[in-house]
Specification:
heterodimer; A: 5-stranded mixed beta sheet; 4-stranded antiparallel beta sheet; 36% helix; B: alpha/beta; 8-stranded mixed beta sheet; 29% helix
Chain lengths: 659, 491
């Protein structure tokens, strides 16, 4: 029996950017960084690492089908590896690749868990045999899945597939022409793909292309986290500050994404750069948002807006330091920054980056369930931050708004761009929308299981509780609030329908218009009344507990409800199908609506309802013209795109347009 | 001076076969633009031979000009299926026009074709490994026939004169008599020489992405797959692509391609899915690795390369489509008949990159708008697919109210392809109906738009021509089915 305490962390070495930087004089010294993961969390099994590496979240299986090889999984518990922070970074050792994808993906997961105040879960997987969704405990990572200059998150396989390829023989940048390049060794690419998986777990419908912003948001968000997560690496930030003389507003190692893969594929530059303006005072091209429609290109505009905000926040945080040091930072003439100042600037940059990253991640809880736009993201950012940090002393919110404004990204139907007009509205008819009868809280209903809101430390338990809560909320939500004492006994039900923008149809319709037939389930031959109900789906029920900078505790319950309606290209057909004058038929596309309900658990009130109405004809028309005009290339002609994206590697396709 | 151009579109095929008959001042020229039938068409060879016989009878075995737009089976298969008729002793081909991309002496063309060839070879080698319903498999039918080079070679040998055409030029259609006062001319609009334009497959607007021609590394990736499955025999590339990425003790453990005897063959086995690993003595698989190889589920990644094959097949298909030779025939009364073959967006976009001469030998000062606004006959690109007709900078510029659209498509046959090809594309078709649905003189809508479809069924939309400028007549073949539609311009 040993009396030693458990070690606090497990340390693993990784490349801070990619292997290319290790072969250059300027960047070699700072290119190795160490990621620390908790040795034992609150629950032991959650932090155990088996051979692979495999833990509660991830499963690295290193099968390389094209080469016909399995690279056996690394055992990070080997005493030799424990003693030296894991394997030394090396391109030639596949086990180091396993260690790096594992460590960087885990780091990304932890960033999300910290900001959201709860556990990360993966998207449930559609099981073809049982025709139902099944929960997936571990995301798989295959570091050598493809011999292609591509890496992607596969929804079908719930896996990250990384490719490797030979650098271009004509134009390989700083790489060996014809040498092997591994996407699994690019820090950015790993964070990017992991973020896709996390975002998909949180908002399953965001991978549907319903408007020009939707897929672009997925890409932009993945890039944003890849960029902002660099601000957790002091070596990198310090070097950027030194080389740019204390400024962040020019293209640097901090703003460039996937330098090596970019150069190796012959493009002479990184895959993307978050700086879209050259030099000071120059305004970005505002018309780009109206002409750029590729997911990566459009996403780039959003990333640039966020990076712009970062630069403003950094400038606000460091103005006083530079004044005290009596150093004027300009592009002309290089001031020699004292070492102490560099350290302070590094700290401020890291704070700015991490704060902004947390803001972006928290905003996800305030985003609509379907049909997301960049404007929604802006409103979510401002709302989430206002809730947690009421007093915006360092003008974070204004910096963000400014970054968006400069690029012409505006939300729909907002009074102005003032922070308080961007906050999501509280619901109308709030007095009719009671949440005090939530099962298990005040007036529990007998048919529903009580909500379980106790914090769960074990990830499996947390998942089971979330699933049980989801079902409890479903029963609570579709149950009628029929009240015979009211002049209109269905008053509350109607108020809920209005507030959520979806239909329940649990009441008679005298005189008023019946909801669309296109909401009803298409089940030929069935006579059961139940089959004729509009389907309401409770996507998720999430509990968040977040602490603000002044120690405010903000416990919230977030409910995501969606509904789908059969959509048709021909407006006449739509009308006939909506009213039921034409025999029901399979849709041309799914039109989705729904709402996110944010409930403050301190006083059981609804703070916000963020909704996309299922009966909005304008939105339907927008999606229709987008889907009908969507230029998916020849893929559309040859029937590669269908109603469901099954078998279609969506993220592989968006990435190939690029890599 | 009278001039008449009859455009004969052969029907009942998903493919392009057009015979143009030019008449002026008592002289006649016959111009054949492509002759192909989609490979999977039932009774395709018989159809192609019927068409070929009709061509040879009509032109009395003298073709003044043959135009081959690009190397896809649905445009050239007829020269194989009916080679004895179209390329036989009795036939004379005076002139052959090909795009610069087919010129064996053009370095740009050689570079391009090497890339296309490499990608095509890799796909061909993997053919029997591809999922039956995959796009790659599906497109093989549309692809470059294995013997396309041989077909072209025979045509080149057969023709008395061969010309390789570059864009932004104007030519007199060959073999016209000097006594013909009304001449037929042809502008060459594409294919572009600009690599970016050549590779561009998609419209830039919308959810799509811009995709460029298969890069070398993509083809190499597939070659690697082909080699692994022992499907390619070139020893030089075998060594190169079989090379493992890791050396020495880092090479890992070999996958076993065959199932163990105890396991009954599954659908996976047929694809050569590894069923296990050859584990060295003293070592063992982890529990998770074992579980991976035991489960035959959708999470296995051995088939993930097929996605790459599909992408490559699509790019190859559009890459070849973009090499389409695009011709605009001009009559003396300045009407234009536009034949864009299967040109994709990049090709269309390139038309406006430079200007065109107004007369033979003059300097180019004519814009593409000035050409497109005179189009009265539009041969709809790529059987009516959505990305082979550029909208704002293409179709919308064809403002002549007499516009007629001819679509060489068999919609039913296209829909029957395993993944269901969308030809013609519904929104494009609707716009064509609008644009051809107006009476040129009265400016009023007409009951039946001027669209001639090649389905060969009762689907001749334009049955009652309202414009005197055009007349359509339907001809039937030996078996009573519709053989062709003849549309007359001028006269």
């Amino acid at each position: 029996m040993t009396l030693l305490n458990l070690p606090p962390v497990r340390r693993l070495r990784v490349f801070a950017t990619d292997p290319q930087a290790s072969s250059e004089r300027m960047t070699a010294a700072l290119n190795i960084t160490t990621i620390t993961l908790p040795w034992a969390g609150v629950v032991a099994e959650d932090s155990q690492v088996e051979r692979g590496p495999v833990n509660a979240y991830l499963e690295v299986i290193d099968v390389d089908p094209i080469s016909g090889r399995l690279y056996p999984g690394v055992d990070l518990n080997d005493p030799h590896l424990l003693a030296q922070d894991g394997l030394a970074p090396s391109e030639g050792n596949p086990q180091f690749h396993q260690q790096m994808v594992f460590a960087v993906a885990m780091k990304t997961i932890r960033l999300f868990e910290f900001a959201l105040g709860r556990r990360v879960f993966w998207r449930p997987m559609w099981d073809n045999d049982s025709k139902s969704y099944k929960s997936v405990e571990r995301l798989r990572i295959h570091p050598h899945a493809l011999r292609e200059p591509n890496a992607y998150y596969s929804i079908d396989k719930l896996a990250l597939l990384f490719g490797y390829f030979r650098a271009s023989t004509d134009e390989a940048g700083k790489n060996l022409p014809g040498g092997w390049i591994f996407t699994a060794l690019s820090h950015d690419i790993i964070v990017h793909e992991t973020t896709h998986a996390i975002l998909d777990g949180l908002h399953r419908r965001y991978s549907e292309a319903t408007n020009p912003d939707s897929l672009a948001f997925h890409e932009a968000f993945a890039d944003m986290i890849a960029l902002l997560s660099r601000f957790t690496l002091p070596e990198l930030v310090r070097s950027a500050i030194i080389s740019a003389d204390g400024r962040l507003d020019s293209s640097s190692i901090l703003s460039r994404i996937a330098q090596q893969v970019g150069e190796a594929t012959g493009r002479k530059s990184p895959i993307r750069d978050a700086i879209d303006t050259i030099g000071l005072g120059e305004d970005p091209d505002r018309s780009k948002i109206k002409t750029e429609f590729t997911p990566h290109g459009r996403g780039g505009i959003l990333v640039a807006a966020i990076f712009d905000a970062l630069v403003s926040i950094y400038n606000t945080r460091t103005e006083d330091l530079l004044r005290m040091a009596r150093i004027e930072v300009t592009h002309a003439g290089k001031p020699l920054l004292p070492h102490e100042l560099i350290e302070r600037l590094t700290k401020e940059a890291m704070k700015a980056g991490q704060h902004l990253m947390n803001m972006c991640i928290r905003a996800l809880d305030y985003m609509p369930a379907v049909d997301v736009t960049f404007g929604d993201f802006l409103r979510a950012l401002i709302t989430a931050d206002t809730d947690l940090v009421p007093d915006d002393k360092l003008y974070y919110r204004l910096s963000v708004i400014d970054g968006f404004r400069k690029r012409g990204i505006f939300p729909d139907s907002c009074l102005s761009l003032a922070p308080d007009s961007l906050i999501w509205e509280a619901p109308e008819n709030a007095d009719l929308l009671h949440v005090t009868d939530l099962p298990g809280l005040n007036g529990q209903r007998d048919y529903a299981k009580a909500l379980d809101l106790r914090p769960k430390f074990n990830r499996v338990e947390a998942f089971d509780a979330a699933e049980a809560n989801r079902q409890a909320i479903w029963w609570w939500l579709i149950g009628s609030d029929y009240s015979p004492s009211n002049d209109d006994p269905y008053k509350a039900d109607k108020a809920w329908e209005g507030a959520l923008g979806i239909k329940f149809l649990l009441r008679p319709f005298d005189g008023e218009q019946k909801p669309f037939r296109t909401l009803l389930q298409l089940k030929p031959g069935s006579k059961s009344e139940l089959d004729m109900l509009p389907r309401v789906e409770v996507h998720s029920v999430r509990m968040t507990r977040r602490a603000g900078p002044d120690g405010q505790d903000l416990p919230q319950l977030i409910i995501e409800v969606t509904q789908r309606r059969r959509g048709f290209f021909d407006p006449e057909v739509q009308k006939a199908q909506d009213s039921g004058t034409q025999q029901a038929r399979a849709p041309d596309f799914w039109f989705r609506g729904g709402a996110v309900i944010v409930i403050d658990l301190r006083d059981l009130t609804i703070r916000y309802i963020i909704r996309k109405r299922i009966d909005s004809e304008d939105r339907l028309e927008r999606q229709r013209s987008f889907v009908a005009g969507a230029d998916m290339g020849l893929a559309a002609t040859y029937g590669m795109t269908g109603l469901d994206n099954q078998g279609l590697e969506l993220f592989a396709m968006t990435h190939e347009g690029l890599i | 001076m009278t001039q008449k151009l009859t455009i004969r579109m052969y029907a009942g095929i998903l493919g392009d076969s057009f015979l143009l008959i030019h008449e002026s001042d008592g002289h006649k020229q016959h111009i054949l633009i492509d002759c192909g039938v989609l490979q999977t068409t039932p009774g395709g060879t018989d159809l192609a031979r019927t068409i070929a016989r009709d061509i040879s009878e009509t032109c009395n075995n003298i073709l003044d000009l043959v135009v081959i737009t690009h190397e896809h089976a649905d445009h050239i298969s007829g020269f194989q299926q009916a080679h004895d008729i179209l390329l036989g002793e009795a036939m004379t081909i005076r002139n052959l026009w090909l795009a610069w991309t087919e010129d064996p002496k053009d370095p740009d063309a050689l570079r391009l074709n090497k890339r296309l060839q490499q990608a095509g070879d890799a796909l061909t080698a993997l053919d029997d490994r591809l999922d039956d319903n995959s796009v790659a498999k599906n497109l093989a039918a549309f692809g470059r026939p294995r013997n396309s080079a041989a077909i072209l070679g025979r045509l080149v040998n057969k023709a008395e004169t061969v010309s390789y055409l570059s864009p932004y030029s104007l030519h007199e259609v060959p073999n016209q008599s000097s006594s013909q006062t009304a001449k037929l001319h042809a502008y060459v609009l594409g294919p572009p020489r600009d690599d970016k334009r050549l590779g561009k497959e998609n419209p830039s607007k919308g959810a799509g992405k811009e995709v460029y021609l298969a890069s070398t590394s993509q083809s190499e990736a597939l070659e690697g797959a082909a080699l692994m499955f022992g499907k390619m025999e070139d020893p030089a590339s075998r060594v190169k692509a079989n090379e493992a990425p890791f050396r020495g003790s880092y090479q890992g453990w070999p996958l076993l391609a065959k199932p163990s005897k105890s396991r009954s063959p599954t659908k996976w086995a047929g694809h050569g899915l590894p069923m296990g690993v050859q584990v060295p003595k003293g070592e063992q698989l982890s529990a998770h690795e074992s579980a991976y190889f035991t489960a035959m589920d959708q999470r296995r990644i051995e088939q993930a390369w097929q996605h790459g094959a599909n992408t490559l097949a699509l790019r190859l298909d559009s890459g070849i489509n973009n090499t389409s030779l695009v011709l605009a025939f001009e009559l003396e009364d300045r009407q234009i008949a536009l034949f864009p073959a299967d040109a994709q967006v990049g090709n269309w976009l390139s038309w406006g990159d430079q200007k065109y001469p107004r007369t033979l030998g003059s300097a180019g000062d004519q814009t593409i708008q000035e050409i497109l606004e005179r189009v009265t006959l539009y041969k709809v690109g790529h059987h009516g697919s959505h990305n082979a007709t550029l909208k704002e900078l293409g179709l919308e510029l064809m403002t002549d109210k007499r516009l007629v659209a001819m679509i060489p498509v068999d919609e039913a046959l296209a829909a029957k392809q395993p993944s269901g090809w969308r030809m013609p594309d519904a929104p494009l078709y609707a716009r064509l109906q609008e644009m051809t649905g107006i009476d040129a003189k009265t400016n009023k809508p007409i009951p039946v738009p001027r669209i001639v479809r090649g389905d060969g069924k009762s689907s001749l939309e334009w049955s009652k021509p309202n414009s005197k400028a055009h007349q359509v007549s339907v001809r039937t073949g030996p078996n009573g089915a519709i053989l062709s539609y003849d549309l007359v311009m001028g006269g």
